[in-house]
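User: Design a sequence. Structure:
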């Protein structure tokens, strides 16, 4: 029962990883594809995602391999897994925490304001391309166009008037990507913690069973005498 429950938890984690990958993470990151001034942010998000998902996959595979080794070797090999699991948790925490903070960049939002000012002053076509890509209008809605240009360009209609500004769209996208990355980060640490608890519980169970068997043998030996 102990092993079956553990295997079910690992398989559920793997299934959730695949679901998050193809249904949530990739669509959100690809939404930023093609936006020139967000190339660094997009590269950082993809790099973090590939690293953390690869780590989760490796954790699951190593757990399955170590699970198999318990049947092929001595049960006490699990004793070596405990310090390894503790070190893996510490390494994951330190390595990915700094990368996670990079996904909350404020510089990109400041650069967006500069792009807007440049568009108002020089009629730069980049802002129009950004609106078509993100399906947004103005810096913070159509009222910004009315305030600066006294008109709303055709890029704000698709086919009806778009009321959400590009700042809000990007802010929501950044928050969503950061939330997904944070959940993957917590998932990796949780899996490593689960494996640590699993092997501690396994050794405790094996030790307790051995002690109990010895006591039963002593008790039976006294009865025979």
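Assistant: Done.
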């Amino acid at each position: 029962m102990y092993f079956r429950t553990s295997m079910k938890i690992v398989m559920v984690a793997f299934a959730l990883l695949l679901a998050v990958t193809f249904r949530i993470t990739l669509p959100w990151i690809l939404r930023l594809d093609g936006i020139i001034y967000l190339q660094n942010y997009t590269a950082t998000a993809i790099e973090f995602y590939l690293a953390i998902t690869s780590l989760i996959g490796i954790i699951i595979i190593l757990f399955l391999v170590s699970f198999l080794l318990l049947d092929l070797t001595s049960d006490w090999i699990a004793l070596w897994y405990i310090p390894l699991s503790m070190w893996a948790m510490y390494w994951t925490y330190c390595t990915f925490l700094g990368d996670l903070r990079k996904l909350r960049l404020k510089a990109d939002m400041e650069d967006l304001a500069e792009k807007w000012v440049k568009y108002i002053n020089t009629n730069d076509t980049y802002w129009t391309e950004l609106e078509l890509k993100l399906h947004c209008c103005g810096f913070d809605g159509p009222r910004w166009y009315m305030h600066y240009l006294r008109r709303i360009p055709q890029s704000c209609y698709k086919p009806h008037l778009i009321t959400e500004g590009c700042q809000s769209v990007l802010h929501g996208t950044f928050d969503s990507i950061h939330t997904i990355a944070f959940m993957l980060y917590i998932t990796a640490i949780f899996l490593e913690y689960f494996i640590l608890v699993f092997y501690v519980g396994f050794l405790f169970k094996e030790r307790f069973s051995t002690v109990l068997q010895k006591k039963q043998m002593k008790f039976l030996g006294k009865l025979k005498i």
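The chain has a mean pLDDT of 76. Helices lie at 2-30, 39-72, 78-102, 107-122, 126-134, 143-148, 166-224.
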